[in-house]
Specification:
heterodimer; A: 286 residues; alpha+beta; Uridine Diphospho-n-acetylenolpyruvylglucosamine Reductase, domain 3; Enolase-like, domain 1; 5-stranded antiparallel sheet; B: Ubiquitin-like (UB roll); 2 domains; globular; binds FE2/S2 (inorganic) cluster
Chain lengths: 286, 161
């Protein structure tokens, strides 16, 4: 591995100062499951690696109030997947966290890292979209809030500037009943990045949110408010027509080694139908 | 050694022994275990977190040592495959791997055993599905998955409770 220098700031202010002084020459490190691969293969060549794991403000953890669940950006997938309230109210996020990589990867990979890498295939991106998460970001000008739908720009690029750090991810606890699910398609169970990722939420007002990834430069969120998708009695034909419109924004790339565009588009429809059906079922469960 | 290379002191507990050493900051935990501490049970293979041959337990949780910088392990407690046998006697889990024919070429086995050990610590009575998931991050080119799974399940059964 190419040499770099390593900093382990003990305050958020020090970390932000390091990033501000070094811009793109600095790379934040949390779990390392993506960064260390890139340091080794040379696709990331920072002068400084800034390890965020000794900063008290960035300690991993999940906090709840009556209307908000806040997940620290450094929280590992393992802890998100196992958290009781995440499982109860944000099941699609728990399901997504539970299929990232392998046990070894989930013990290390953080939610902040997963979204900041901005892979179009990031498993946690689509559940955060359907739950309308907000990313809390610290930067030189102070702290700001970025709605997750404005967060992903394109593969490898988010709304964060090089001098910014994601502190936490807020999920508003829905005021009404919901059913939700995360599904993915991979070549093999256990490790692979997803060829299609899909999350769906339906609520008792008839609103459906579908988010899908790995079929374009950024994950996409679509909200459907006619009530037809969420209606257990609506015909398959009526739903299929709506899903066609929803998936028309998918633009899978030609060059991927994981799956052809045709396969991805076909699987998008399969997963879409399945996700809507499961979400409706879960909404109906007491 | 290149002068540009930054080195930092770390202190880690490895299989119960406190070790203090200086590491190059761009070396991984796997590099340091194998090259500096001569603990070569953890294997180097894919180096991208896919095969699990380098699996070790860091503060109670399995990690791929090829994806952890050695400096990140400062202040932690590690268990490697070398830490499982005691007084020259195989742990029941290790013995079960042999008894059930789980070991063919043996290359993946340290990682498999470490993952299985951690799984049984968290979940003393895993289902077959739990075992599949627990070792999904450990590939075996010899295809011993059936025998390995059997060894883990039988170890759990034999431990009673
Ligand atoms: S060598 Fe570390 S996971 Fe393969
Ligand atoms: S026993 Fe040969 S790779 Fe597993």
């Amino acid at each position: 591995m190419r040499a770099f220098s390593y900093e382990r700031p003990e305050t958020l202010a020090d970390a932000l100062a390091l990033l501000a002084a070094n811009g793109r020459d600095a790379r934040p490190l949390v779990g390392g499951t993506d960064l260390i691969i890139r340091l080794r293969d040379g696709t990331a060549r920072p002068r400084i690696v800034v390890d965020l794991k000794r900063i008290p403000e960035l300690r991993p953890g999940i906090e709840t109030t009556t209307d908000l669940l806040t997940i620290g950006a450094t929280t590992a997938m393992t802890d998100i997947a196992a958290h009781a309230l995440v499982r109860q109210r944000f099941l699609a996020l728990a399901e997504a966290a539970a299929v990232v990589g392998s046990v070894q990867i989930r013990n290390r990979a953080s939610l902040g890292g997963n979204i900041c890498n901005a892979s179009p295939a990031a498993d946690t991106a689509t559940p955060l979209l359907i739950y309308e998460a907000v990313v809390i970001v610290a930067g030189p000008g102070g702290t700001r809030r970025i709605p997750i739908r404005d967060f992903f720009i394109r593969s490898g690029e988010t709304a964060l500037r090089p001098e910014d750090l994601a502190l936490s991810i807020e999920l508003p606890i829905p005021g009404h009943r919901t059913g939700s699910v995360h599904l993915r398609r991979t070549r093999r169970r256990g490790h692979d990045l997803a060829s299609v990722t899909m999350s769906c939420l339906v609520d008792d007002r008839g609103i459906t949110r579908l988010a899908f990834g790995s079929v374009g430069p950024r994950p996409i969120l679509v909200e459907e408010t006619t009530g037809v998708l969420a209606d257990p009695g609506a015909t398959d034909g009526a739903k299929a027509a709506l899903l066609e419109t929803i998936f028309s924004s998918a633009t899978p790339s030609q060059g991927s080694m994981r799956a052809s565009p045709e396969y991805r588009l076909a699987m998008l429809r399969v997963l879409g139908r399945r996700a809507v059906a499961i979400a409706i079922d879960r909404l109906a469960q007491p | 050694m290149n002068d540009d290379v930054q080195r930092l002191p770390i202190s880690v507990t490895v299989n119960g022994d406190e070790r203090v050493l200086e590491v190059a900051v761009h070396h991984t935990l796997l590099d340091v275990l194998r090259d500096d501490l001569a603990l070569t049970g953890s294997k180097e293979c894919c180096l991208v977190g896919e095969c699990g041959a380098c699996t070790v337990i860091l503060d109670g949780r399995t990690v791929d040592a090829c994806l952890v910088l050695a400096v990140e392990a400062d202040g932690t407690s590690l268990t490697t495959i070398e830490g499982l046998a005691s007084e020259g006697r195989l742990s029941p889990l290790q013995a079960a791997f042999l008894d059930h024919g789980g070991v063919q070429c043996g290359f993946c086995i340290p990682g498999q055993v470490v993952s299985a050990h951690a799984l049984l610590q968290d979940n003393p009575h895993p289902t077959r599905a739990d075992v599949d998931e627990g070792i999904a991050g450990n590939l075996c080119r010899c295809g011993c998955y059936e025998q390995i799974t059997e060894a883990i399940l039988r170890t759990a059964e034999a431990s009673g409770r």
